[in-house]
Amino acid sequence: MDEMKKIGAKILDGAFLIFCLLVVLFIMQLFCYTSFRIPSDSMEPALEDGDRILVNKMIKGARLFDVFSALDKKEVTIYRMPGFGDFKRNDILVFNFPYQMNRWDSIRMDVMQYYVKRCIALPGDTLEIRNGLYKIRGCDEPLGNYKAQQYLAGLQHPGQYGIVVGTFPYDKQLRWTIREFGPLPIPRKGQIVTMNRTNFVLYRQLIGWEQKKKLRIKDGQIVLGDSVITQYRFKKNYYFVSGDNMANSQDSRYWGMLPEEYIVGKATRIWYSEDKFTEKPRLDRIMKKIK
After folding, report:
1. How many Å apart are CA 246 and CA 265, to the nearest integer?
2. What are the beta bridge partners of residue 192?
3. What is the architecture, at CATH level 2, of domain 35-164+239-289?
4. Can you tell me the distance from the alpha carbon of 63 to that of 261, in angstroms, rounded to the nearest whole number?
5. For residue 106, what pLDDT band results from cuts at 50, 70 and 90?
6. Which one in 6, 44, 124, 175 has a CA-CA gap of 20 to 30 Å to 269?
7. Which has the closest alpha carbon to 38: 133, 127, 147, 116?
8. Distance (Å, rounded) from C-alpha 259 to C-alpha 62?
9. Ramachandran region of residue 199, left (φ > 0), alpha (ψ -120 to 50) or beta?
10. How does strand 231-233 pair with strand 192-194?
């Protein structure tokens, strides 16, 4: 009988230890790090199809929101735990796609759809693309995948290669393209903009999402809900992101700016990788630091 009690106690101790480990892992994944699998080539060569990456949630703080409401496609309020830093240009970010598929006229988080792209512009930056190359006013820092930008710049007729040339905000007067784009000021929290036609075209999705009201032009005036506005102060921070494989990447060039609260975190390391065709491990990529 004593022997059975000892065995039972060891089983209980083992079960309790496993339970504690599972709780620790759950807390770590909820607040510190999580893992994602790369499903496409849009971030090559930095990330390849089949890479599994660790994502650091602690830089800006882990997000807390009603997951069940988000799964029901309801609007949710997102809170952040305290973070210890800020995202930087050229960080690779994982985020919830901020627009409904094929409905880029309004912002809505898809909790089941995650994208991974490189941060090109931060809140408060003014971004331009000139001859295919990313530029931030007042900053000489190299941005994104320079070889991919040069490749696009050298194509005389990108459309012949299946590359979509027209870009956000798809306006006939601005006529922005993947090679000539901007200037686009990226809004930061508290920034005030004058509401003219250009800023209406650039920011109508963001303002409509922040205010939960429709922004429109009526009789030459900018109307938010039922009120005419001449300027607007942003309540949120936004980013501009791009795939490294720019010829095959659905990114901010096409759908616009990324709200900060939709960002999960920064991709830091490839913890495992396997070839998508052979399913064999790619040993040279395991535990590789992401740059």
Report:
1. 22
2. 233
3. Ribbon (2.10)
4. 8
5. confident
6. 124
7. 116
8. 15
9. alpha
10. antiparallel
The answer to whether 52 and 116 are in contact (CB under 8 A) is no
Beta bridge partners of residue 52, listed in sequence order: 37, 272
Rounded-to-integer distance, Cα 32 and Cα 46, Å: 23
Domain boundaries, the chain: 1-31, 35-164+239-289
Name the residue among 112, 52, 113, 93 with its Cα closest to residue 244.
93
Question: What's this model's pTM, rounded to 2 decimal places?
Answer: 0.91
The string of pLDDT tens digits covering residues 156-179 is 888 888 899 999 999 999 999 999
| 3-state DSSP of the chain | CHHHHHHHHHHHHHHHHHHHHHHHHHHHHHHCEEEEECCCCCCCCCCCCCEEEEEECCCCCCEECCHHHHHCCCCCCCEECCCCCCCCCCCEEEEECCEECCEEEEECCCCCCEEEEEEEECCCCEEEEECCEEEECCECCCCCCHHHHHHHHHCCCHHHHCCCCECCCCCCCCCCECCEEEEEECCCCCCEEECCHHHHHHHHHHHHHHHCCCEEEECCEEEECCEECCEEECCCCEEEEECCCHHHCCCHHHHCCEEHHHEEEEEEEEEEEECCCCCCECHHHCCEECC
Distance set, CA 213 to CA 103, 208, 227, 257 (Å): 17, 5, 10, 18
How high is the pLDDT of residue 15? 77
CA distances to 30, 35, 129, 246 from 56, rounded to whole Å, are 11, 9, 29, 24
As a whole number, mean pLDDT of residues 114-139 equals: 96
Phi-psi region of 105 (alpha: psi -120 to 50; beta: other; left: phi over 0): alpha
- In contact, 244 and 145? CB cutoff 8 Å: yes
The pLDDT tens digits for 189-225 are 999 999 999 999 999 999 999 999 999 999 889 999 9
